Amino acid sequence: MKYLILLIILFSSQSVGQNTPAEFAEMSMQQLFNQSIYDVKLYNNQTSPWSLTYQFKTVEFEGYLDGTKALSFDEVLWNGPSEPRTAKNFPILPTLITQKAQIFALGYQFSPHWHGRISVPYIQQRTDHISIVGNYEYFTIKTQGVGDASILASYKWFDADSDTGVWRFSFGLNLPTGSIDETGDTPREPGEQQLPYTMQLGSGTYDFPFEFSYINTGAHDFNVGLSANIRSGTNDRNYRLGNNYSLHGGYRIDLSPTIQTFVRVNFMYSLPIHGQDDSLLVNSPFPYPAGITNPDLYGGKKINVRLGILWQIAKDYRLSLEIGKPVYQNLNGPQPKEKWQSAVSISRVM
Amino acid sequence: MSRGCLISLLSLLLCSSVNAEHSLSKEDKLKAAYLFNFTKFIEWPILAKSERPSSIRICVDGSSAFFEFLEELVANRRVGKLQKTVEVLSLETAGGCELLFVREGEKKITIQLDHTVVVADSVGTAFPNGALFFYVEQGKLRFEIDLEKINSLKVIVSSELLKLARVRS
């Protein structure tokens, strides 16, 4: 990581400055006419090429879905020999999963077209369970630590004579810096054991995120895009998380020169986990003690709607608040369903 | 993550290190660029040799950051048929100017304004000799022109500039 930061600093000395007096002097009358005065939404208006962002994200899962059908805890919890055990009921049942991530990101605008970003998340996870195992009727498992670091480069195409539209292509690499060896006390056996996939902090694989999007900043400020996170190989525990694909769109409205509100709609398609961590299994005809230990019970389709606000609180500071809720979920289930998510971020141009 | 590391990152996020150029808003930078562009589209009357300035002088009644930005913006640039250099002068020290940018309507001006095109910071700047006025429309910087006033200055305004201006009624 430190070499990457050094590399960015090295590049910064050769970068093209933005918003310099010379650049403004080169603008034609028509170009000036088309420029927005707002620092908040232009792609070419930062006062410094460096930016620092802190983001706090929360997502909560509660309840179960099999496809689009809602299941009660009673339907997913296997209540012992009095009822038949199937591939869709389990003696241990997560009831509430809360994931929080604090993401620290450092960005650098190499030129009006190229932008780089390194981010590192710090993750805190908590899962409440019920089970039919004695002394574990109700129990909670927590994990926390650094997640997978991400390096992302973006290239923008735009017409310098107009600030009405930008095409952006982003690509990068997610590094397996997050632990996949988190352990805890579960009813599976006495003492500390390997925790399920949801409680791990990283993927354990090198992943390749990319995104292609169009951002319109004219009279109608909207964006549409396609993104994916492609996983590669398998990790040390013989699995890889499923690829994610997303189609998203958003619309922003100016409430004032410094405040905008936005709505975003995101259609996501995720694949199940490929491979399996055998240490999560029990020696039984039904080897999965909980749904979250079965790699096939991951992935599905979701449509999320998010509402938010962007506020340029000071010249170099920008605050973003958003809250989202799935309006459609079709999950490979039984699987915990997403209840809501939120994000707060503050970014500073240095 | 250690608490020290977290504190360092947050300190970096919050610490302030803004220099003069960076303290200007984008709106002010655009105003500076407009002022420079106005010198390309306005022709001032040719005066007697003794009164003829060697450059186009823009007098600025503004913040020092604005002054410095505009000074850098016009540096080594030539405009007009005569390819004159453009000079930025402080209103307090200028002996005369072709373009005057004022932010305050009640600013006391001691220099002669015979052929000076006065550009006001906003339509609300009630400067008595204002000929051009900046205003914001749908998040974009525009300008208004007082035709009567500008005609009285005996300057020639390019039709290209007039096409973009809103005419003051």
Provide the number of structural domains of chain B: 1
What is the tally of helical segments of chain A? 4
Order of helices and strands of chain A: HHHEEHEEEEEEEEEEEEEEE
Q: Given the C-alpha coordinates, what overall shape of chain A results? A: elongated
The CA-CA distance between the termini of chain B, in Å, is 64 Å
Strand order of the largest sheet of chain B: 3-4-2-5-6-7-8-10
Report mean pLDDT of chain B, rounded to a whole number. Answer: 80
Helix content of chain A: under 10%
Structural class of chain A: mainly beta
What is the terminal-to-terminal distance of chain A?
Answer: 20 Å
Number of E-type strands of chain B: 10
General form of chain B: globular
**Tally of extended strands of chain A?**
17
CATH architectural designation of chain B? 3-Layer(aba) Sandwich
Please report which band the strand proportion of chain B falls in: under 5%, 5-15%, 15-25%, 25-35%, 35-45% or over 45%: 25-35%
The computed structural class of chain B is alpha/beta
Ranges of chain B where pLDDT stays below 50 over 5 or more residues in a row are 9-21
Largest interface: A-B, 35 and 39 residues
Structural account:
The complex is a heterodimer of chains A (350) and B (169). In chain A, 7% of the residues lie in helices and 54% in strands. By secondary structure, chain A is mainly beta. In chain A, the strands form three sheets. An eleven-stranded antiparallel barrel of chain A has the order 1-3-4-6-7-10-11-13-14-16-17. Chain A has a two-stranded antiparallel ribbon with strand order 8-9. In chain A, a hairpin with a 6-residue loop joins strand 6 (149-158) and strand 7. The two termini of chain A are 20 Å apart. The relative contact order of chain A is 0.16. By secondary structure, chain B is of the alpha/beta class. Chain B has a single domain (4-167), classed as Rossmann fold, CATH 3.40.50. Helix content of chain B is 30%, strand content 26%. In chain B, the strands form two sheets. In chain B, strands 3-4-2-5-6-7-8-10 form an eight-stranded mixed beta sheet. In chain B, strands 1-9 form a two-stranded antiparallel sheet. In chain B, strand 7 (130-137) and strand 8 (140-145) form a beta hairpin. The radius of gyration of chain B is 19 Å and the shape is globular. The N and C termini of chain B lie far apart (64 Å). The A-B interface holds A 19-22, 24-25, 27-30, 32-39, 42, 45, 47-48, 52, 54, 104, 122, 146, 219, 254, 257, 315-316, 346, 348, 350 and B 1, 9-10, 12-14, 16-18, 21-23, 25-27, 29-30, 32-34, 36-37, 41, 69-70, 72-75, 77, 136, 138-142, 160-161, 164.
